[in-house]
Amino acid sequence: MDKDTRDKLIEAATPLFAWKGFAGVSIRELSKAAGVNSALISYYFGGKEGLYADVLESSLVYLLNTLEKIHHSGLEPERRIELFARAVSGLHKQKPFLLRLLQGEFVNPTVCFENIVKPYFEKIIVFLPAAIEEGKNTGRFDQDVNPFYAAMALSSMVNFYFVVKPLADHILPQDENRDEEYIRQVLKIYLSGVRRHGDA
């Protein structure tokens, strides 16, 4: 298998699918963007659907593998939560189109929503609540904290920044370390909120 051609197709297809959606991109447009014969899309992926599925899965499998390593690290819950936030932030820098791809699936789901997005999120969603539950069990976190709601809150805090980043670029200080500082502030606020009273 010519990995260069395959990767070239995925690289070219990712921004097109992100900005125009699955239905809005033609095979001709995909092949032109990648600079390859359109027949190669069928050869490597079985068609446009297969290419789109690979684009989605390549980003989600990266996130899943990263979070699994953090989950099995044996680190304290606070440290795992910190690494989770930083991993998601890092993912957005490495895979800047992932949020748009997922938003497209949430608004106009394709067959990939049931076959790829949903199964991956069912695996991904367990890691952060597990860290929060452990924090509660060890007396480090407030007993009133709901692990799943708390996990959703942190995910929202981290991801929303990258959703509105074009706007943030205009209204927040122009600092080359702004992304890192934002995550630092989120973690400070979040961990202060979930810790047992008196431990913050």
**Which fold name corresponds to the CATH topology?**
Tetracycline Repressor, domain 2
Overall 3D shape: elongated
What is the alpha-carbon Rg in Å?
19 Å
According to DSSP, the number of beta strands is 0
> What count of structural domains?
1
Give me the secondary-structure category.
mainly alpha
| Strand residue content | under 5%
Give the biggest beta sheet.
Answer: none
Number of helices: 11
Walk me through this protein's architecture.
The protein has 200 residues and is mostly helical. It has one domain (53-194): Tetracycline Repressor, domain 2. The protein has 11 helices and no strands. The N and C termini lie far apart (54 Å). The model has no long low-confidence stretch (mean pLDDT 91).
Q: What are the key terms here?
A:
mainly alpha, Tetracycline Repressor, domain 2, elongated, 200 residues
Task: Please write out the topology.
Layout: H1 3-20, H2 27-34, H3 39-45, H4 48-71, H5 77-94, H6 98-107, H7 111-124, H8 127-137, H9 147-163, H10 165-171, H11 178-194
Helix pairs in contact: 1-2, 1-4, 1-6, 3-4, 4-5, 4-7, 5-8, 5-9, 5-11, 8-9, 9-11
Summarize the entry for a quick read.
The protein is an all-alpha fold and 200 residues long.
